[in-house]
Amino acid sequence: MSTLPEGVQRVAVALAEAGHAHAPKMLDDAARTAQQAADALGIGVGQIAKSIIFRRKSDDAAVLVITSGDRRVDEKRVATLVGKIGRADAEFVKAKTGFTIGGVSPVAHAEPPVTLIDRELFRFDEIWAAAGHPHGVFKLAPADLEKLTGAPVADVVQVPSIP
C-alpha cells in the first residue's frame, strides 16, 4: 500500500485521536469540487461537506465555513457572525490550513481557524468531507463535525429562491 499524502496523514491522526470511527480513504479520481466528490462516492452533492475558507479582515485569520455541497455560502451572514471577511487566495489557504484548495479538511489545520458549521448539513444522516488532499475523503455524521471542530452551527447559506 502506498503512503498517504502528508495532509491525509495529519487528518488521519486527528480523527484517530478524536476517536472518530472512519479513517480517510483515497479516491481514484480527484474530488476538487463537491460534485466530483459526490459522483466518486455515489451520493447526492448535498452530502458533501465543503470547506470554504475566507480571510477575516480585522486580524487576517482564516474563517472556515463548512456547508452542504448543494448550497452557496452567504458572505453577509458569515460576516455578521465573525466580522468582515474577504476572499482567500490559494497561497493564504495553504499557509493557514496546510491544505491546498480542493482538499481542505474540516480538521487538522496548520493554524486553528474560526469555524462555522452550516445547519443545512443536518438534513443528512451521513456526510463526507475532504481529508487533506483532492483525492482524500472521510465519512461522518453532521454531529461529528460539531464534536471534531467544537464549532457552532449557524445559518450561513443563501436562501434558495423559490421559482
Question: Describe it for me?
Answer:
The protein is of the alpha/beta class. Helix content is about 25%, strand content about 25%. Strands 1, 2, 3, 4, 5, 6, 7 and 8 form an eight-stranded mixed beta sheet that branches. A hairpin with a 5-residue loop joins strand 2 and strand 3 (about 60-70). The radius of gyration is 15 Å and the shape is globular. The protein starts with 5 loop residues before the first helix and ends in a 9-residue tail after the last strand. The model has no long low-confidence stretch (mean pLDDT about 95).
Task: Compile the SSE list and pairings.
Layout: H1 6-17, E1 25-26, H2 34-41, E2 48-56, E3 62-68, H3 75-82, E4 85-87, H4 90-97, E5 114-118, E6 127-130, E7 136-140, H5 142-149, E8 153-154
Compute the CA-based radius of gyration.
15 Å
Biggest beta sheet summary? 8 strands, mixed
Question: Shape, please?
Answer: globular
Number of helices: 5
Features:
163 residues, alpha/beta, 8-stranded mixed sheet, 8 strands, globular
Overview in brief:
The chain is about 25% helix and about 25% strand.
